[in-house]
Amino acid sequence: MTLTTLDPRTALVIIDLQAGIAGSPQAAPVVARAVELADAFRAHDLPVVLVNVVSGAPGRTERPRPAAARPEGWAELLPELGEGIRVTKKTWGAFHGTDLDERLREQGVTQVVLSGIATSKGVESTARSAHEHGYNVTVAVDAVADTDPDSHRNAVERIFPALGETGTTAQIIDLLEATQR
User: In this structure, are residues 95 and 70 in contact, taking their beta carbons and an 8 Å threshold?
Assistant: First the structure.
């Protein structure tokens, strides 16, 4: 883990921890760590962004997509995440087609810490876009998960270090406490 610093105006961005995606038992540790991070960010009056997804990008793919409409409540953010800036997306990444960049810049944010599901889709796409928008990027590697272990490992070991820094939830909270005094 290479985490070195957190900017004075760092935002936590929690991706797709919603009823239809994060309701499985394997998601429980990610949700618990995201809640820990959110509580720590709020304690320092730093922005917490809660991102949900309501659909997929319209382009063709080789993998089949759900043909039926999503069930009622599928896109509802998990209540244990609390309150924050809400962003609804229709693609994997939280920046494309949303006002996330504008909302972060309005608050003077220069760095984002990412948590959520799925590592190789929503989290990675958001990390790539945050990097391209000029934000310092940190990924809480124990607060992300993916249904594909190889894709998860690739993102954590190869992609995220090229886009920013990585650290555990505990390391991020410790650094947050040290830099926000």
Answer: no
Q: What are phi and psi of 131, to 5 degrees?
A: -60, -45
Is the model's pTM score more than 0.85? yes
Return the structure tokens found at 60.
């063709």
Mean pLDDT by 10 residues, the chain (181 residues): 90 96 87 98 98 83 73 88 97 96 98 97 97 98 96 97 97 93 69
d(CA 114, CA 95): 13
- C-alpha radius of gyration, the chain, whole number: 15
The residues pairing with 145 across neighbouring beta strands, listed in sequence order, are 117
Find out whether 172 and 6 touch, Cβ atoms under 8 Å.
yes
Q: Which domains does the chain have, with CATH numbers?
A: 10-53+76-179 (3.40.50.850)
